[in-house]
């Protein structure tokens, strides 16, 4: 297994330039804008809309990027930073780098077995992967693909408490190191790119593998199947046939038996009814300690008062995130929220940043402003679209290489030495 080491930036540069001397150029661009362009060409229209799209007019996505532009790195010279240590301690575990792969739902739109492929890439590069609750592969399959490397599990709080407990117990059984409860998706945000295509992957059975593999969820499907039929039968259209074929392919079991069975359709309907809970409250979250032995991470917090309340509740970490701009249009940038939250909670609590990270310099900036680590979202999925597992590995390696070189060029030898005095605000 290849893991990040001091000097990863020079190692990465050397490998690329040696290959270039033999006439080979990387499939995965080191330029984040070009990475997006290549990924868009590689994806279907529906996959691109779902992965790259944001809420409303996309202002939150734009704000996430502009927040990084307001900070400039101020290098220091002659610091003797010949070797750099990128490792960090998170929740009592040493991580090789301050970078994790964020959960991205319905990645099966991009590639078959997407979650398993991403898991293998995470293991190969030595970074943690937060398994998506809306994955297209089961958490058990993804954990096996990581071969013992560390992973966390994302939880969407279902309307059904039995399903919440079942998913948590399965996550524990896979060896998950933490439970990441996503708070900001109690309902889906208004996403024009998906809406204009009339495209929601879950109704096609894409992104519900954690559910169709779950005993409690399947019991809910059984109850629905046993209930008297109600409502009009769907019209037979070309679109309906395509959806039926997709459901039959994605659902566990044989394609032809699924095609003749109402179960795949009922599973998709059950999912849309129960997968998240619009009534999620602090009272629900207060029960977490009795539900799991895992460290608890709350994802989606932006307001300092919510951060303070979460820590008073005894959670182990917070992910400052606006869901990559996918939930609320015109929301505060995650990086700006991080600054405000760190100021209120002080230096000790573990804060991770999600949303807006594209480069190693972004990681450096986030760490300097108080992040304990960061989560990388869309870029690793773009790598997947372009070149499968190798593409994901290349994206991770590129981000970590730039972080390492940025540390070298700013005179920083360790992650803990990345401090606010290495930044200047540009207003």
Question: Could you explain how this protein is built, in words?
Answer:
- It is built from 19 helices and twelve strands.
- Helix 18 (360-368) links the parallel strand 10 (350-354) and strand 11.
- The protein is globular and about 75 Å long.
- The protein has two domains: 8-194 and 277-425, Aldolase class I (TIM Barrel), CATH 3.20.20; 209-273, no CATH class.
- The protein is an alpha/beta fold and 427 residues long.
- Helix 10 packs across helix 13 (263-274).
- Helices cover 47% and strands 11% of the residues.
- The longest helix has 33 residues, at 378-410.
- The chain has helices at 8-21, 32-42, 45-52, 59-69, 114-125, 139-146, 161-173, 192-197, 209-212, 215-226, 238-250, 255-260, 263-274, 282-285, 288-291, 304-313, 334-345, 360-368, 378-410; strands spanning 71-73, 88-90, 93-95, 99-101, 128-131, 151-156, 179-182, 296-301, 317-320, 350-354, 373-376, 423-425.
- The strands form three sheets. The protein has an eight-stranded parallel barrel with strand order 4-5-6-7-8-9-10-11, surrounded by seven helices.
């Amino acid at each position: 297994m290849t893991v990040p080491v001091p000097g990863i930036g020079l190692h990465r540069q050397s490998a690329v330039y040696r290959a270039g001397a033999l006439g080979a150029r990387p499939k995965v661009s080191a330029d984040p804008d070009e990475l997006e362009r290549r990924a868009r060409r590689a994806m279907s229209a529906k996959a691109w809309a779902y992965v790259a799209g944001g809420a409303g007019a996309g202002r939150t996505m734009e704000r996430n990027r502009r927040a990084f532009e307001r900070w400039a790195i101020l290098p220091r010279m002659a610091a003797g930073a010949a070797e750099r240590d990128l490792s960090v301690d998170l929740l009592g575990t040493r991580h090789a780098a301050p970078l994790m792969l964020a959960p991205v739902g319905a990645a099966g739109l991009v590639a078959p077995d997407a979650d398993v492929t991403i898991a293998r890439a995470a293991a190969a590069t030595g970074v943690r992967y937060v398994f998506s609750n809306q994955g297209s592969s089961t958490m058990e399959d993804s954990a096996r693909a990581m071969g013992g490397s560390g992973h966390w599990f994302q939880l969407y709080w279902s309307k059904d408490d039995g399903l919440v407990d079942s998913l948590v117990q399965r996550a524990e059984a896979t060896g998950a190191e933490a439970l990441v409860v996503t708070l900001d998706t109690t309902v889906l945000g208004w996403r024009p790119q998906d809406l204009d295509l009339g495209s929601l992957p879950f109704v096609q059975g894409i992104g519900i593998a954690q559910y169709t593999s779950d005993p409690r969820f399947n019991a809910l499907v059984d109850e629905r199947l046993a209930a008297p039929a109600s409502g009009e039968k769907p019209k037979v259209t070309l679109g309906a046939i395509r959806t039926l074929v997709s459901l039959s392919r994605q659902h566990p079991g044989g394609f032809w038996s699924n095609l003749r069975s109402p179960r795949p359709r009922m599973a998709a309907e059950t999912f849309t009814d129960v997968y998240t809970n619009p009534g999620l409250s602090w009272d629900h979250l207060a029960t977490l300690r009795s539900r799991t032995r895992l460290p608890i991470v709350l994802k989606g917090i932006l307001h300092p008062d919510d951060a303070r309340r979460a820590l008073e509740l005894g959670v182990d970490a917070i992910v400052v995130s606006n869901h990559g701009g996918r939930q609320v249009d015109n929301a505060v940038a995650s990086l700006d929220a991080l600054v405000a939250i760190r100021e209120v909670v002080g230096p000790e609590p573990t804060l991770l940043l999600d949303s807006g990270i594209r480069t190693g310099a972004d990681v450096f900036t986030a760490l300097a402003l108080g992040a304990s680590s960061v989560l990388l979202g869309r870029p690793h999925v773009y790598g997947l679209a372009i070149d499968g597992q190798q593409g994901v590995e290349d994206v991770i390696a590129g981000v970590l290489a730039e972080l390492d070189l940025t540390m070298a060029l700013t005179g920083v030898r360790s992650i803990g030495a990345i401090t606010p005095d290495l930044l200047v605000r540009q207003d």
